[in-house]
Design brief:
Layout: H1 14-26, E1 35-37, H2 42-57, E2 61-64, E3 70-74, E4 83-89, E5 92-96, H3 102-117, E6 126-131, H4 144-149, H5 155-160, H6 169-175, E7 192-200, H7 205-209, E8 213-219, E9 221-230, E10 234-235, H8 247-263, E11 271-280, E12 286-287, E13 290-299, H9 302-323, E14 326-334, E15 338-339, H10 342-355, E16 359-364, H11 370-373, E17 379-384, H12 400-418
Parallel strand pairs: 4-6, 4-7, 7-17, 8-16
Antiparallel strand pairs: 1-5, 2-3, 3-6, 8-15, 8-17, 9-13, 9-14, 10-12, 11-13
Helix pairs in contact: 1-3, 1-12, 3-12, 8-9, 10-12
The structure holds glyoxylic acid and manganese (II) ion (MN) (2 copies).
One manganese (II) ion binds next to loops.
Length: 422
C-alpha cells in the first residue's frame, strides 16, 4: 500500500473549521457564549440536521441507528474491510462551551476534506461517528450512544431510563424520529479496525507544558450515584429545630462526606463531585422534605474509585440514621478504566514525529465515547490544549491553530490506518 500523502496543519482549512464550530454553537438553548444542547432538544435536532448537510457535501454515506448515533462513511476501495472510525459528540451540558466533543466531530470532516483535496483514496473506509448523548444530562447516564453500541446496556436497562420530566427513552427517541430497533444498535465484533477520538484536553497539562498534542494511554474509570433523601417537610416558622428531619441538611452533610471520601481514598487521582442537588418542595418557608443528589466519582485506579464509592455509602447510612431521613442509593454507572491500544498510540506518535509535531503521553481524566469504543475495537485519543484547561464552562477555548494541528495529526493517522490491509 503506498504511503499516504503528508497533511500538515497549514493544509487544514482552519477558517472553515472555526465557522462550523461557531455555527454549531448557535444551536443552543443558552445565550452565547454559553452552549447548552441537551439530547433531542430543538437545538440538538438543528445541530444534527446541520451536520448531516456537512456530511453530504463531502459525499459521505450516512446512516443513523435507533438511538440517533450518526455514521457517515467515506467509502474506501475495500469497503468489505472493517472501517477506521473516528468521532465524538455534539451534545453539551447546561452552560457549557463550544469545543467539548464538537472538535472531534468537525475535526473528522476537516480531516476528510483535506485528504480528499490532496487526492487521497482510502483503502479501508473511514467513518465519522457522532455519538448520541455522551453527556449524562437528560437520562442520567453518560455515553449513552457508545455504551449501547458496545452492547453494555441491555434492552431492559434502556427501557428503564427516564428523564427528569418522566419521559422514557422510548418515548423521547420516537418523538425525535428515531424508531429503528434498539436491538440493532450494538456493533458486531470486527466492525471497526480502530477508533481514534480527537478532543480538547479539558485539563491544563498540555498548555502548561507548551506541547501541542497529547496521546492518550488510558481513560479514567467513571462512576455516578443518585442518592434520594426523604425527610419530613413542614412549616419553616412552626417546627422547632430539634424536631426537624431536613432532607437538604442531610444532603449538605453528605456532599461534604463525598469530598472527604475522595480526599482520603489513598489515591491523589480520586475526584468526587456532587453536581446535582434538587430539593422539594423548594419554598423559602418550607422545610425541605426531599433531596435528590447526583454524585460523580472517578479515578484511574479502580480500587481507589470503588473504595470511595463504598465510603460514600457508609456515610449515607450514618447521616440518614442520625438525621432521621430515609436514603436510597442507586448506582447509575461504575465503569472500568479503558486502556488505549499500544499499536495505535505508537501510530499517533510516529505520525507526530513525521509531521515534526511535539507530543506527549497522557491520561484522560474525563470520560469519552472512546471508553466504550474500547470494548468494540482498539482505540486511542488525540488531545489538544485548551485555554487554562477550562471545560464544561462557557469560556472553554481552543485556538484555531491548536485545533488545526490536532486535525492534521488525526488526518494523517486515519489515512495511515486506512491503508493497513491486515
Ligand atoms: C464528560 O463530559 C465527562 O464528564 O468526563
Ligand atoms: Mn463534556
Ligand atoms: Mn467530550
Amino acid at each position: 500500500m503506498p504511503n499516504p500523502p503528508l497533511i500538515s496543519p497549514t493544509q487544514i482549512d482552519a477558517a472553515a473549521v472555526q465557522a462550523q464550530l461557531e455555527q454549531l454553537a448557535r444551536f443552543s438553548s443558552a445565550p452565547a457564549p454559553a452552549v447548552t444542547r441537551v439530547l433531542w432538544s430543538e437545538p440538538d435536532m438543528q445541530a444534527r440536521a446541520y451536520l448531516r448537510e456537512q456530511c453530504a457535501t463531502l459525499g459521505l454515506e450516512m446512516r443513523e441507528d435507533g438511538l440517533g448515533n450518526l455514521f457517515a462513511r467515506w467509502l474506501g476501495t475495500a469497503p468489505e474491510l472493517p472501517a477506521v472510525a473516528s468521532g465524538s459528540h455534539i451534545d453539551a451540558i447546561p452552560n457549557a462551551g463550544m469545543y467539548d466533543g464538537t472538535v472531534g466531530v468537525i475535526g473528522v470532516l476537516a480531516a476528510i476534506r483535506a485528504l480528499q483535496q490532496v487526492g487521497f483514496t482510502p483503502h479501508r473506509s473511514i467513518e465519522l461517528v457522532v455519538f448520541t448523548a455522551e453527556e449524562p444530562t437528560r437520562f442520567g447516564v453518560g455515553c449513552l450512544g457508545s455504551r449501547a453500541m458496545a452492547g453494555t446496556l441491555t434492552l431492559a436497562q434502556l427501557a428503564s431510563l427516564r428523564d427528569s420530566d418522566g419521559h422514557t427513552l422510548e418515548q423521547a427517541r420516537h418523538a425525535a424520529g428515531y424508531t429503528a430497533e434498539l436491538a440493532h444498535v450494538a456493533v458486531p465484533e470486527g466492525h471497526y479496525v480502530a477508533f481514534i477520538e480527537l478532543h480538547i484536553e479539558q485539563g491544563p497539562v498540555l498548555e502548561q507544558a507548551g506541547i501541542p498534542i497529547g496521546i492518550v494511554q488510558k481513560i479514567a474509570a467513571p462512576s455516578s450515584l443518585r442518592i434520594t433523601l426523604t425527610g419530613e417537610g413542614g412549616h419553616a416558622g412552626a417546627v422547632l429545630m430539634p424536631d426537624r428531619h431536613d432532607a437538604l441538611l442531610a444532603a449538605a452533610e453528605l456532599a461534604l462526606a463525598v469530598e472527604q471520601a475522595a480526599c482520603s481514598s489513598g489515591s491523589p487521582d480520586t475526584v468526587g463531585t456532587t453536581g446535582v442537588l434538587r430539593i422539594a418542595p423548594g419554598a423559602v418557608n418550607s422545610i425541605p422534605a426531599h433531596a435528590v443528589m447526583e454524585i460523580d466519582v472517578r479515578d484511574t485506579d479502580l480500587a481507589a474509585r470503588d473504595r470511595t464509592l463504598a465510603a460514600i455509602r457508609t456515610a449515607t447510612a450514618a447521616i440518614s440514621i442520625r438525621r432521621g431521613v430515609q436514603a436510597t442509593v442507586e448506582l447509575l454507572n461504575a465503569d472500568p478504566p479503558a486502556p488505549c491500544a499500544p499499536a495505535l498510540t505508537d501510530t499517533v506518535r510516529h505520525v507526530c514525529q513525521t509531521l515534526g509535531i511535539a507530543a506527549q503521553p497522557m491520561i484522560s481524566r474525563a470520560y469519552h465515547d472512546s471508553l466504550f469504543m474500547a470494548r468494540v475495537c482498539p482505540i486511542t485519543m488525540i488531545f489538544i490544549p485548551c485555554y487554562k484547561g477550562y471545560s464544561h464552562r462557557p469560556d472553554e477555548y481552543a485556538a484555531p491553530e491548536a485545533i488545526a494541528t490536532g486535525i492534521a495529526v488525526l488526518a494523517q493517522t486515519l489515512a495511515h490506518l486506512s491503508q493497513v490491509s491486515a
